[in-house]
Amino acid sequence: MTGSPLLTDGDRRQIAAHGLSEDDVLRQLALFTSPPPPVRLLRPATAGDGIVRIGRERQGALLERWEGAARAGRLMKFVPASGAATRMFEALAGEPDGRERAKKLFEEIVRLPFHDALAAACHARGFSLQPAVAAGAFERVLSALLAPPPEGIGYGALPKALIPFHREADGTRTPFEEHLEEAIETVRDAAGVCRAHFTVAPEWRARFKAALQEMTPALEATTGADLRVSFSSQSPSTDTVAADGEGRPFRLADGSLLFRPGGHGALLPNLEATQGDLVFVKNIDNVQPRASRGPTLLWKRLLAGFLLETIERLGDAGRPVRVCGVVPNQGEPGGGPFWVADRTGEPSLQIVESSQVDQADPSQAAIWNASTHFNPVDLVCALRAPDGVPYRLDDFVDPETVFISRKSRDGRLLQALERPGLWNGAMARWRTLFVEVPIETFTPVKTVFDLLRPEHQAG
What sections of 197-355 are H helices per DSSP? Predict the structure, then answer.
């Protein structure tokens, strides 16, 4: 495949500097002109047919298994946390709907956990928050909230992990801190050591480390935990080349290739690099205040116990094993649990995203719409064989479960390629089990208005 006329010597130098090979790029470009077929759904996974319901009578034994593994130091937590908060606030921009949404939000500004920070930012810029809201000066308030310093406090570009989500009597809590508190209650070992790993954008790593340094003394003093927190970033070698409308390399004005981040599936090497044994994986924005965290803590422990019970029952499955919590479908956008035909026609349980399904096929669309459960990204994964040897996770990826989207840049059509998603295609050849968990464990914050929901006001 090397020596393609599609690529210049300058391209090859750029590709090598990115940590990719020419063959990698040519394989990616081939997917634009000959995309893989969509996933073939067989039926939704349902309770009793692919989804397990854990009754109270089983919980005691599962909790004992979890506690034994936790005390032995086998557990850790992995949280993708590189996403910016931009989408949280995008509904507030634009006219006329954006102005109406901003009015609705600011009328309830006192209920938001960052009210005091915003009031201080407005004061520092020579005006008062409440009078500005009363006068309808929403653009001025939005600028104080979203614009980068010194014009504002910069929430528009800040990582979602560092935005205050909850307010307690002793201060506000970010998702970063909420995840650490959750980790202390689910992965701490007998010596108090609590291991957690966050993937972050390189430009924000220093900010995360500073936040960790600030919160650690109080967290350790109140819980007795010994926090061992690590960070990593998506490698440039997981980026993918963009294509034009004809499937040729998309070139910038200077003639260079355009590379784009490969989606959350690019974090598979980061997950493997943790060298974890039993690893919880969860989205950064799915957190609860302390007062309503009880069901989440219980079911994290039960999922781990169920995973350990499964491993004991199966023995060496020859591949990684994961237990995925799924919630009853509430109409949220995203993926769900399905029985899928693999490339040989054999059925397997998979998390499937809507982008993987041929919605123009009536039979496939009907199966998709019959789904009873939703994927909240609440996983616990066994990354080692029973003898303790780590699996090479790349061996269990379905490379055909890529996603191609159409965008524009500089007025030109651009095709973007995402690698197989972390919890769907990247784990397609794992042993997968689904367990129903209560809807109370799923409280995502996709827009700033979600912070006004009762479950986020419990503090």
Answer: 205-223, 268-273, 294-314
Residue 66's SS3 state is helix
∠ CA 268-272-278, nearest 5°, is 110
Give bridge partners of residue 167 from the DSSP assignment: 172
Residues sharing a CB contact under 8 Å with residue 303, sequence separation 6 or more, in sequence order: 323, 325, 378, 379, 380, 435, 437
In angstroms, the CA 370 to CA 213 distance is: 47
Number of helical H runs and strand E runs in the chain: 13, 19
Q: What distance in Å separates the CA atoms of residue 239 and residue 189, rounded to the nearest whole number?
A: 36
Q: Assess contact for 375 and 437: CB atoms under 8 A.
A: no
Beta-strand ranges (E) seen in 33-99 are: 40-44, 46-47, 50-52, 75-80
pLDDT tens string 380-438: 999 999 999 999 999 999 998 999 989 989 899 999 999 999 999 999 999 999 999 99
Name residue 26's amino acid: L
Specify which residues 259 forms β-bridges with.
241
Q: What type of residue is 54?
A: I
Q: With 0-12 CB in 10 A as exposed, 13-18 as middle and 19+ as buried, what is 364?
A: middle
Give the separation between CA 351 and CA 456, rounded to whole angstroms.
27
Reply yes or no on whether the pLDDT at 75 is more than 50. yes
Please tell me the pTM assigned to this model: 0.94
Q: Which of 282, 187, 173 is nearest to 227 (CA)?
A: 187
Q: What is the dihedral of CA 90, 93, 94, 100, to 10 degrees?
A: 110
> 303: which 2 tokens?
């999922």
**Cα-flanking dihedrals φ and ψ of residue 30, to 5°?**
-65, -30
Report the interhelical angle of 294-314 vs 56-71 (nearest 10°): 80
Give the residue from 33, 41, 134, 7 showing the smallest Cα distance to 369: 41
* From 96-110, 129-143, 370-384, the region with the lowest mean pLDDT: 96-110
CB 35 within 8 A of CB 404: yes
Query: For residue 230, which of 261, 197, 204, 260 has the smallest C-alpha distance?
Result: 197
Contact predicate 201/233, CB 8 Å? yes
Helix (H, G, I), strand (E, B) or coil at 45: coil
Domain positions in the chain: 9-85+162-456, 87-157
* Spatial separation of the C-alpha atoms in residues 203 and 210, rounded to whole Å: 13
Under CATH, what is the fold of the domain 9-85+162-456? Spore Coat Polysaccharide Biosynthesis Protein SpsA; Chain A (3.90.550)
